[in-house]
Design brief:
Layout (H helix, E strand, L loop, with lengths): L16 H7 L13 H10 L14 H5 L17 H14 L16 H18 L8 H8 L7 H12 L11 H8 L9 H14 L14 H6 L10 H26 L9 H8 L22 H7 L5 E2 L20 H7 L9 H21 L5 H4 E2 L8 E2 L1 H17 L4 H26 L6 H4 L4 H23 L1 H4 L10 H10 L7 H11 L4 H8 L4 H14 L42 E2 L3 H9 L4 E5 L4 E5 L6 E5 L13 E2 H14 L7 E2 L1 H4 L4 H9 L1 H7 L2 E5 L1 H6 L7 H9 L8 H8 L3 E5 L2 E4 L14 H8 L13 H8 L10 H4 L10 H5 L7 H13 L1 E3 L37 E5 L2 E18 H5 L5 E5 L4 E7 L13 E9 L12 E10 L21 E13 L5 H10 L4 E3 L4 E7 L1
Parallel strand pairs: 7-9, 7-10, 10-11, 16-21, 20-22
Antiparallel strand pairs: 1-3, 2-3, 4-8, 5-6, 11-12, 13-14, 14-15, 15-18, 15-22, 16-17, 17-20, 18-19, 19-20
Helix pairs in contact: 2-9, 5-7, 5-11, 6-11, 7-11, 8-9, 9-11, 13-25, 14-15, 15-18, 18-20, 20-22, 23-25
């Protein structure tokens, strides 16, 4: 309970005498009387002048609701500066000299004293109404300090914004906020000014706490100091309590707010460091009288352009209360977003946090587009109502029209080559600055300008990434030499990769990639689609496709949210787990016809004789006939779409009729004979194996292969669907993402797809360039010339693994079987099928494949994909489709030999003086890695461990322990001269006595005498900055990370198990 307040005291309170005497100890003479900051505030309030002036900034609803009675404020008699204020100014001037490295260039940016006083008064009135005197306690300032500024009444945020606006420091951007304010604001404030007292009190309580630690309060709250029962000559007044509470709240938020501003050096707002430097830079600025009108916008846009660069998303335009009262044509052309913002934020104007957020958004959209296109763009051109009558948005398609209009005008006036190139350099600088502004605003731990304005997190995220996406589109336009002629500029070369990296690395919690994925998921797409496309396209090219994917929408089998259980690794809809619940689809949804099946005996007899059975439908029954080369159609489909079955069960009559009609249209001379696994592969295990052995020949010998995929046959039309959309539908289909369909598409002599209007030869829509790279199997068919005899042809293993990337199969053990017709000729499918059913079948088949392959690229163990768990083969990949194709390179760095005991090869090894042990839990928690020292070069290296999926069969595999590192590349340099030694693997030595350096000669040693090591984990070794000898010793004893000493690289033979 606070002490009973007495009447308003006119004398000076002695409470603050001691602190101020301490601060003034270096003055030639101490002040004649102690200083009462609260009374000083009241004095400055009385100096505020006419209080009848209308208040510019609108108070919040909370502020308006709280209107306690107040005593009238007298007008000051003169403008004389009080002695105590002069003393404070002297103190501030003295403090400013203590920081000589700051350039205290000041830009006078605050309004008249009446406006600042009214903000201050509304804050006090809110506190008086919100917290009765009897409720004042230490928890009250804590509550106010923990409350985000956006949740307090608008007067608090506006006042903090106003104080921060009072100075722009051109100098070191990362100094302590209170130090910056203390050394820069106080010496330059004019007099008299009500804002002065607020700033002085705020800074002093930030830099030097005016309060004391009291019983029950260790935070030195001013309020708690006033409430303490310490003996004093004059008791604090009620006004003093609220002044103290106000200062406790203001100083906390002011420091956080100012710190956040100091971090945003590239912001287009006038207070940022780069804006100040730009605005102060002399020189002629480009001008433009071009104003965009609605009639100027192109009605038709080249389709190739839209598909090559993409188009912007709609950018949210929340109602933030823009202060643009003038006509949008009253402002001149602005050559940069900074100038755009400075003209719309004049000096001496009170700006709310919402006003600032609106101006930032306007500068980063309209201001940037105007600067790049050199055209004035009225807001009415681009702002349209949002969907469902929601708030306005910047219309993405209209932004694309602006870009096309700019390109057309630029190319027409493309006379002076040097001037044209200089404009390209200016555009590159504008885009880089915009990226830095985005990174400053959203990539740090500080609150963003939209968070301070109270914009919800999800809406802020959409604003952030829709602008980022616009920057990607603009970069793609600039880097396209055909469109702009700037592709060869030094400023453009390689810039798109840098630019994408900057956007992608904002933070680890959510990136532009994640936002794209979220937009696709919201549109109903499977997350596996984006992951699959990423393997075929670089990130920036994929960014151009995302808007098209969202615009077109996915194929919906049953309902929009049907991919809720899918992951980026696999689509749950295409994984048939419960075969007992499997349902066949009919050609028509209303049909309920029975199944028809071929004679089982006929199929079995042909398979026993090694002949491929095919079927012919005569309108009532299915006949089985032996396949003739070029005499039948092979059907390629995905089981999850309802056409899976066996000879024993058959398929619905309506579906068989439909497939037969398609086959007859493609091959009428053979009565539409066709092969389909659902009709020509029996369920009995042995006969099924015989059919699988013949499957590669089945597709090689077929006259044509027909792909039947639900999304393609439903959404593609040979005449009505444009080519890019057809390729996009094929690229996102189930057929192109399954392992079984890979060899079916590659081995086909002629490949057809079922469209809405019938079967279409893929040669009609598969043309080089464009979006063909989205469908690697079709790109392969176009660019790789196969020999006439497909029975002896096999693709290079490197190419095969690349084509497998991202494809999935329901049963892991089926992968090698499904591509057996593409594996090297000496790898026999019979050996793979001989691995009997039981545990670890996928790993046993992979082991058999590697043993048959025998010669293995040395990079294979360095893949980060899941590993096998079989003894002697923990280095081996679990599946080919999960790894990276580059590790199957035919050239560098060479080959090893796969044996039953492991992989024998010539590697570079570096021994550790002691084993490194790293628990699995530490890897999952993203530890800093392992610090290792190379004593001879006196260099430290950071050993980053990659989480390993799979693992050895030992029961304690939750613990990583290794005592040597293996590298693959020769000529990598010494530890002292190489920044990164690249990927390596941690291994455990199994024959310790044999691995001492020099025990096995590097040249001429037999691999039969190889050193036995066990694969443990994949790593990456990166050198840290080189310290001195003394620093090494100090660092060695203080680092709280596992550490070891690393020996030199030795060229050795090893047997990796």
């Amino acid at each position: 309970m606070p002490p009973e307040p007495r009447g308003r005291s006119a004398s000076v309170n002695t409470l603050f005498a001691a602190p101020f005497r301490r601060f003034f100890r270096t003055q030639s003479a101490p002040p004649t009387s102690p200083v009462n900051c609260m009374a000083a505030m009241e004095s400055l309030v009385q100096m505020s002048g006419d209080t009848s002036t209308d208040f510019v900034a609108e108070p919040s609803s909370d502020t308006a609701a709280v209107q306690p009675a107040r005593t009238s404020v007298d007008t000051p008699c003169d403008d004389a500066l009080p002695p105590w204020l002069d003393a404070l100014r002297q103190l501030a001037l003295e403090a400013a000299t203590e920081v000589p490295y700051l350039d205290n260039s000041i830009l006078d940016r605050y309004p008249s004293h009446q406006e600042s006083f009214r903000l201050y008064r509304d804050c006090i009135r809110y506190l008086e109404g919100r917290y009765p005197v009897a409720s004042l306690a230490c928890s009250v300032p804590e509550d106010l300090q923990e409350t985000p500024l956006r949740d307090l009444p608008a007067c608090f945020g506006t006042l903090v914004n106003l104080i921060a606006d009072s100075v722009v420091i051109v100098g070191h951007p990362n100094q302590d906020a209170s130090e910056q304010l203390l050394t820069s604001i106080l010496p330059t404030l004019p007099r008299p000014h009500a804002l002065r007292a607020i700033v002085i009190a705020a800074i002093l309580t930030t830099k030097y706490s005016l309060g004391h630690n009291t019983e029950g309060c260790q935070a030195s709250h001013i309020l708690c100091t006033l409430l303490s029962p310490s003996p004093r000559a004059h008791q604090p007044t009620e006004s003093d309590y609220y002044q103290g509470l106000f200062l406790d709240c203001l100083t906390h938020h002011l420091k956080d707010f100012w710190s956040a501003r100091l971090c945003k050096t590239a912001s287009p707002m006038p207070y940022s460091l780069e804006s100040c430097e730009e605005l102060a830079r002399p020189g002629l600025l480009p001008t433009s009288d071009l104003i965009v009108n609605m009639d100027d916008l192109p009605v038709e846009i080249d389709g190739d352009l839209v598909w090559s660069i993409g188009f912007p998303f709609d950018i949210p335009w929340p109602p933030l209360g823009s202060r643009r009262d003038e006509s949008e044509y009253d402002y001149p052309f602005c050559p940069s977003p900074s100038i755009y913002a400075s003209l719309r934020r004049p000096k001496g104007t009170v700006y709310t946090l919402q006003n600032d957020a609106a101006l930032w958004l306007s500068a980063m959209t309209f201001g940037l587009l105007e600067a790049i296109t050199q055209m004035r763009i009225p807001q009415s051109i681009l702002l349209v109502p949002g969907t469902n009558g929601e708030e306005a948005v910047i219309d993405g398609p209209r932004v694309l029209q602006i870009i096309v209009l700019w390109l057309a005008r630029k190319n027409r006036g493309h006379g002076d080559r040097q001037q044209h190139l200089e404009h390209g350099r200016e555009v590159a600088q504008l885009l880089r600055r915009a990226l830095r502004a985005l990174t400053d605003e959203f990539g740090l731990k500080t609150e963003s300008i939209f968070a301070y304005a109270g914009i919800p997190k999800d809406k802020e995220m959409n604003i952030r990434y829709s602008i980022a996406h616009l920057l990607v589109i603009l970069w793609r336009v600039m880097a396209n030499d055909r469109l702009t002629g700037w592709g060869s500029l030094l400023e453009t070369t390689g810039a798109i990769t840098y630019f994408w990296g900057g956007l992608h690395c904002w933070n680890t919690e959510f990136s532009l990639h994640d936002w794209y994925e979220k937009r696709m998921l919201d549109a109903g797409w499977c997350p596996n689609v984006k992951s699959f496309l990423m393997r075929a396209r670089d990130s920036t090219s994929l960014a151009a496709l995302i808007p098209h994917l969202i615009r077109l929408g996915p194929y919906v089998r049953t309902e929009l949210g049907e991919h809720a259980d899918c992951s980026k690794y696999a689509c749950a809809l295409h994984t048939v787990v419960d075969t007992g619940a499997y349902k066949h689809r009919h050609a028509r949804p209303s049909c309920e016809c029975d199944n028809v099946k071929p004679p089982l005996d006929g199929v079995l007899q042909l398979l026993d004789n090694g002949v491929v059975p095919v079927v012919v439908y005569d309108g009532s029954d299915l006949r089985v006939v032996p396949a003739q080369e070029n005499g039948y159609i092979a059907i390629s489909h995905v089981w999850s779409e309802g056409m899976g079955s066996t000879t024993d069960v058959g398929l619905p009559i309506c579906l068989v009729e439909h497939i037969s009609d398609l086959a007859k249209s493609l091959l009428p001379e053979h009565d539409g004979a066709f092969w389909m696994d659902s009709l020509c592969v029996p369920s009995a295990r042995e006969q099924r194996k015989k059919a699988i052995r013949l499957m590669a020949d089945t597709y090689r010998d077929a006259a044509k292969v027909l792909v039947i995929d639900d999304s393609i046959r439903t959404l593609c039309h040979s005449e009505l669907t444009i080519l890019p959309e057809i390729l996009l539908r094929v690229a996102t289909s189930a057929w192109v993402r399954r392992v079984w369909t890979l060899q079916e598409g590659i081995l086909a002599r002629e490949l057809y797809f079922e469209f809405v209007d019938g079967a279409v030869d893929c040669a009609e829509f598969v043309v080089p360039g464009g979006l063909l790279d989205l469908v690697p199997v079709l790109s392969f068919r176009t660019g790789f010339e196969k020999p006439r005899d497909l029975r002896v042809w096999r693709p290079p293993l490197l190419l095969l693994v690349s084509l497998l990337q991202g494809r999935t199969t329901t049963k892991d053990e089926d992968e090698l079987i499904a591509i057996s017709g593409l594996l090297p000729l000496h790898v026999k499918i019979d050996k793979l099928l001989a691995e009997g059913h039981g545990p670890n079948l996928a790993e046993r088949r992979m082991k058999r494949f590697l043993l048959e392959l025998r010669v293995i690229p040395l990079l294979v163990p360095f893949d980060s994909s899941p590993r096998s768990t079989l003894s002697g083969f923990t280095w081996a990949p679990y599946m080919l489709s999960m790894g990276h194709w580059v590790n199957w390179s035919d050239d560098d760095p060479g080959y090893g030999i796969c044996t039953e005991e492991g992989l024998v090869g010539r590697y570079h090894s570096a021994l550790l003086d002691k084993p490194i042990t790293m628990p699995q839990a530490d890897l999952e928690s993203q530890t800093r890695g392992v610090l290792v020292l190379h004593p001879q070069s006196k260099t430290f290296h950071r050993l980053q461990l990659c989480e390993r999926t799979g693992g050895a069969s030992s029961p304690d595999w939750d613990l990583y322990a290794f005592d040597a590192l293996l590298f693959v590349r020769e000529g990598m340099g010494s530890f002292a001269s190489t920044i990164s030694l690249g990927p390596c693997i941690g291994v455990k030595r199994l024959s310790v006595g044999a691995v001492t350096p020099g025990s096995i000669e590097a040249n001429g040693a037999s691999h039969e005498h190889a050193i036995a090591v066990e694969y443990v984990v994949r790593c990456g070794l990166i050198r840290e900055s080189t310290p001195t000898t003394q620093e090494i010793l100090e660092l060695w004893g203080t680092r709280h990370v596992p550490a070891a000493r690393l020996g030199d690289l030795q060229d050795v033979w090893v047997r990796l198990s």
